Every structure is written in C-alpha cells, then in structure tokens.
Amino acid sequence: MDFKDLPDEELWLQMQDDLYDGLKDEVVEETKEALARGYSPTEVLAKGLVAGMDIVGVDFRDGVLFVPEVLMAANAMKAGMEILRPLLTQTGAPRIGTMVIGTVKGDIHDIGKNLVSMMMEGAGFEVINLGVNNDADKFVAAVKEHNADILGMSALLTTTMPYMKVVIQALKDEGLRDKVFVMVGGAPVSEAFAEEIEADAYGRDAATAVDIAKRYMAWKNAQRAAT
Amino acid sequence: MRVAFVLCGALAREVIDIARRHGWNVSFYGVDAQAHMRPERIAPLVERKLRELIPRCDRVVVIYGDCGTGGALDDVLRRYNVPRIAGPHCYEMYAGAVFDAMMDEEPGTFFLTDFLLQGFDGLVWKGLGLDRFPELKETYFANYRRVVYLAQRGDDGLASKARAVAERLGLPLEIRHTGYGALETRLVTLMDEIADERYRPRISHESLIINHQSSIMSHES
What we know:
Radius of gyration of chain A: 18 Å
Order of helices and strands of chain B: EHEHEHHHEHHHEHEHH
Order of helices and strands of chain A: HHHHEHEHEHEHEH
Structural class of chain A: alpha/beta
Mean pLDDT of chain A: 94
Strand order of the largest sheet of chain B: 2-1-3
Number of strands of chain B: 6
Strand content of chain B: 5-15%
Oligomer: heterodimer
Structural class of chain B: alpha/beta
Number of strands of chain A: 5
Distance between the termini of chain B: 41 Å
CATH topology of the largest domain in chain B: Rossmann fold
Helix content of chain B: 40-55%
Shape of chain A: globular
Low-confidence stretches of chain A: none
Radius of gyration of chain B: 19 Å
Largest sheet of chain A: 5 strands, parallel
Shape of chain B: globular
Strand order of the largest sheet of chain A: 2-1-3-4-5
Number of helices of chain A: 9
Low-confidence stretches of chain B: none
Number of domains of chain B: 2
Helix content of chain A: 55-70%
Strand content of chain A: 5-15%
CATH architecture of the largest domain in chain B: 3-Layer(aba) Sandwich
C-alpha cells in the first residue's frame, strides 16, 4: 500500500517507522504528504519527526540501537526538518527559547552536538549552531548577539573539556553568567565535572538535554510571569 | 608476588611485548577493545575483572586511558585501590609530550595505531557502521583534516595500510614512529613501585554496597 493511501494516524506511524529506519527519502515524501493534508509544520514536526526520534532515543539508551542507526535516523529527521524549517519561520511558530551551541576550542567532534541541536530545534527552540572549535570570545559574542537563554557546550576529548570552564569564566567577566543557563555534554563529561566547572546542567544524551532545557524555560517563564 | 594486568584489548599485544622485554612475571586479562564504542560499559567491565582477580592477586594494575568514561573508570579504581597507567587515551600514551602540540597544530587529526590498522575494517569501519551505511562517512569525518599514524613497530605492511586508509578517508597522511612511547615509560615507573604496600588492592565495604545497588537496579530494569 502506498503511504498516500494511509489514514492520517497510520501516516504518522509510517513516518516514525521510516525515520527509525533512517529512510531519508521516505521521510521527506511523508513530510510533504502530511503538509499537503493540511497539517501545520508544527504538527508534522511533533507527530512525525520528533515522535520518531523519541523512539530512537529510548532504543539507543536501552542498547537496542547503536550510533550508526541513530545517525541514519538523525539524517532522516534533518531532511524532514529542511522542508519544515522555512515554513516554521513563515508561519511564525512560537519559539520556546533561544540556544547557542558549539563544540569548544580544540574539539572538532560534532556528532553529539548536532544531534542535540536538531532535537532542540524539534522541541521548538531557536538554535544558533556555532559549529566546531569555538573559543570563549565566539561563545560570548553569540550569547550577547542572540540574547540566548541557554548556552550548550560540547567536547569529546578529556583534553578539551576543561575549556568549558574558560568559557564560563568569560561569561562571568562579561556579566552574562546570571543571564544564561549553561549546559554541557559530551562523552567524557559528567555530572561531577559540570558541577566542578559551575555549569548549570549536564545533558547525558540529546533527549535528556532537551528535557532539561524545556524544564529550565518553563521555570524561567514562571519567574518572568511572577515579576 | 602475584601481579595481574587488566588491559584494554587495543594495547594487549604491545603490553605483553613490554612485559616480556622487562622480564615481568605478570598475568594478563584483556577487556574487549570494542567496549570503546560504548565507553559507559568500560568501567563495569573492568570492575568485573577486578572482583574476580583481587581475591587471588597481590597487585592488580589497570592499563587503560580514561577512554571517554568521564572519570567513571577512575572512580571504580579508587574504590578498589587499584592503580591505572596515567593518560587520557592510547594516542597520548604513544605520542607522549608531543600529543598536545599535534592537537594544537590541527584539532582535526584522526589517529591510527598498529592495533587500529590491523583491525581497521572490523573495528573502525564496521564499528562505525560504514559497511552498512557508507553515506555516514561524511558525518563522521567531515571535520578531520589529516591522518596521523602513530607507528609502534615500524612495519612496512602497516605503513602501506595507513596510506590506503588515508586515501579512503580522502585525507593527507603523516607517519610518526613513536614506538611504545610513554606507555612503556609510565608502565616501567609503575612496576618499579608496585611492591609498595600502598598498592595493595581491596574489595571495600563501599564497593560491595555499590555493586549490590547496581545489581538490584539492573534486575529491576
């Protein structure tokens, strides 16, 4: 049966399955089909792409899926996002917060960081992805320019992760530390390290990072409302 | 004195050769190098070996880097009072003092060792899923700018394999003959001190509690 013949609920399931299997072309076609049926870009994002990626996240955590399968699924989600992104901008879909993200100086390993970036975008954040090998000046400038709610820093190497502390010090020096929520992540990073360098949170994986960011924004918005 | 080495499979051949050259009377217990693909599994795998070995050995030495465990391996070793050779990973151990300079010069450096070249297709290519998903090559390697082969034995066959790997990745190759580098010097220093009573391993009360909690959690999940 062609996916165009599927009822809506089954189309979402098919989209999630295809995303899980990393079938980029199918996910693109199904994204277009859902839009053609009159669903908003936000609905397509949530019911198709993010829902599919959530299952991938759970199965990765449980050891059912491994990194290559997650990357294939992420690439499929990215392809779907490329269709939705301009539409989300056009329709003025509400953003729940702004995040600046990048790997720290000396570190070019961006797979995890890109996954977090995409999942954050999927969750409704505006994400400014600075790419790899960023020094403190670049992080600070981007936080200022975009008035970021959250700064995410990533490192894969034990030799580069101490640089996160340099960035946090630079934020303090610029009087920005209390204005931005700092999240750190990457294979060698731990909860204890995050505490040691005075980051606000450690994201063990992309799903956890999104969850923490959403909870932080809910808290921040409640604080704003109360004042 | 009964001394056991718990070592990463990626260092096994080299460490056995070092031990033979220095005439150390030690037993070797390897941990599968594939564990690097899920670094969170390394500390529990090493801990399992420690619990087997400590009751029947006078000393246990762990030959591993931190290897992306985020300090979890060192936390385990502290509980059992077991020393580990210093260093974050084997590339730093082989390259020694010049490792940081190489990374400063080019952060996008992809390292190869004798071990990685011998098993490149299985451990790296297949391990990264590139046999099944060749399109992921760009995702994995887009930010790399060069390959540096840290050669231990100086084998011509491995050098030509390194050239083939660099070509497959589309990157320039640099070969540096490091020998065993700081892996050997640090191990020699540790073995000179190992008879000292402060290196006696123990299965502490804390280890028993943590292990009991972990087994309950894994049973519940």
